Amino acid sequence: MTVNEQAPIQQLIQASRRIQLALRITAGTWLASLVIAIIQQIMISTKQGGQLPLIFAIFIEACLVITTGGTLIMFARRQKIVQRVWHILPEDQLRSVAKVADPITGVTDLGTHYLVTAPLASITIAKDSTQIEIDPAAPQSTYRQQSSYFNAHHLERWLQPVGVDAKTFLAALPDDRYEALVDADHQTDILHLTTADYDRLQKAAEK
Predict the structure, then answer these.
(1) What element of type H or E holds 145?
(2) pLDDT (tens digit, 9 = 90+) per residue, 92-119?
(3) Sheet holding 130-134, edge to edge
């Protein structure tokens, strides 16, 4: 990882921390303004006081505009930093793959699905999510599942040059980018067929 690649990651962490602080300040400002408004209404209704001085009302409105506007600007700046970080993020390298395989006795084409017959049970799998591999040397056909999943250890290693831990980095990402990185797991169905089983499947589909 180059110095130019490390910089936006540090900027992202700092921007996230500034946003958290800005949100607290903004919430506090709005809460204080609400309390002042309630107190003023109570004083007016009980005839114990009048309207706030104009200059004080302008000051409160200015504080609200500055804190709210400043927070929105910080969010916009963070989005630009995220774009840069996302460009250098090695997504493929941050995922791991798990595979399982079970022997099958046959496959039947059901139109939109395959019926996969195994010694202990039979299942149907959608055609559009199924890959077919032909292996002339295979002694028996197998049904495989291949799952990819986010690996935080890979992310930790990638972040080592920056001195940022994976938890802090993930917390700094906006929700949509976090979900795109962490929750993008998918499963692939693979039919690893002998030549004979594949030929039978093809002939059945042609009928």
Answers:
(1) strand 142-150
(2) 899 999 999 999 998 998 889 999 999 8
(3) 95-103, 142-150, 186-193, 130-134
CB burial of residue 52 (10 Å; 0-12, 13-18, 19+) = middle
Say if strands 130-134 and 95-103 run parallel, antiparallel, or are unpaired.
unpaired
Distance of alpha carbon 113 from alpha carbon 129, whole angstroms: 10
- Helix ranges (H only) for the chain are 3-45, 54-88, 152-159, 166-172, 175-182, 195-206
Q: Answer whether 0.70 is exceeded by the pTM.
A: no
Q: How far apart are CA 123 and CA 98, in angstroms?
A: 20
Q: Tell me, what's the pLDDT at 203?
A: 80
Q: What are phi and psi of 117, to 5 degrees?
A: -100, 130
Task: Report how far apart, in Å, the C-alpha atoms of 120 and of each of 102, 103, 104, 136 are.
Answer: 10, 10, 9, 25
Minimal CA–CA distance to 93: which of 12, 202, 1?
A: 1
Q: What is the distance in angstroms between the CA of the first residue and the CA of the last residue of the chain?
A: 57
Average pLDDT, stretch 13-36? 90
